[in-house]
Amino acid sequence: MAQVYVSDHPLVKHKLTLLRNKETDPKKFRELIREITILLAYEATSDLEVAATTVETPLQTAPGFKLKEPIGLIPILRAGLGMVEGIWEMIPSAEVWHIGLFRDEQTLRPVAYYNRLPVDPTVSVCLILDPMLATGGSAVKTVEILKTWGANRIKFMGLIAAPEGIAHLTTQHPDVDVYVAAVDTCLNEHGYILPGLGDAGDRQFGTG
Ligand code: PRP
Ligand code: URA
Is the CB of residue 193 less than 8 Å from the CB of residue 184? Predict the structure, then answer.
């Protein structure tokens, strides 16, 4: 069964409140997404495997560790893009593979428009990045794409989830753990999360 981790960190709560604010401009919005993602990444990467190594300090040889598994960051275009930079600073060796999906406004079903994954998987851990888990359709579709590719460990990292999205994702993919900053109340009739933050793509890119 999937685990759902909802951050209880005071900095996440504080920054998420600023992010939700309708007065927050796109520049500040992008900064906050980047910062919250770094805080969430601490938890989402806590079970990454490490290999023992040694390091030469100025005085002695010391025991150490290095990340063992190739890691993939999978932002869902467009809104997931803003989550890449912060976590990539923490894991500069990660590969970034973009998946392009948008929601059909009528059906709310995800429509795939970009995927340049190579034939064979190149990473063993995939972190899907998307600020919003609303109906869950986009996340479920992305997990399907990654599983078809051959990825065997997949996690979802988001900022705000609706209970409907969590139920959809964890029912369809009980092997995918979910890391979010908050779980909100519900979806409105247009599939937007309430209270949410509005349209995460438009608010980042100034296109609203
Ligand atoms: C948003 C968001 C997710 C999706 C979530 O993207 O970034 O990808 O909606 O909704 P769901 O859980 O109901 O699938 P959107 O389709 O607005 O595209 P955009 O990021 O390009 O603006
Ligand atoms: N996509 C968004 O950007 N916001 C929502 O509330 C739902 C889907």
Answer: yes
Task: Name the pairing type of β-strands 182-183 and 160-161.
Answer: parallel
Q: Quick check: 208 pLDDT over 90? A: no
Residue 34: pLDDT over 90? yes
Is 53 contained in some domain?
Answer: no
- Asked about 202 being catalytic, the answer comes back as yes
Tokens (6 digits) for 16: 């998420």
Number of domains in the chain: 1
Average pLDDT, the chain: 97
Contact 20, 12 (CB under 8 A): no
Can you give the pLDDT at residue 108?
A: 96
Amino acid identity, residue 154?
Answer: I
Predicted pLDDT of residue 152: 87
Q: What is the pLDDT of residue 198?
A: 98
Q: Distance from the CA of 98 to the center of ligand 1, in angstroms?
A: 14
**Is residue 175 among the annotated active site residues?**
no
Does 59 fall in a domain?
no
Q: Is 63 contained in some domain?
A: no
Q: Which residue range forms the structural domain that includes residue 15?
A: 4-46+69-205
Q: Nearest residue CA, atom 18 of ligand 1?
A: 102
Give the CATH number for residue 186: 3.40.50.2020
199 tagged catalytic:
yes
Domain-embedded: residue 64? no
Ligand closest to CA 165: 1
Per residue in 164-179, pLDDT (tens digit) is 999 999 999 999 999 9
Ligand 1 neighbourhood includes 162 CB (under 6 angstroms): no
**Count of all residues that appear for the chain in the document:** 208
Q: Is the CB of 132 under 6 A from ligand 2?
A: yes
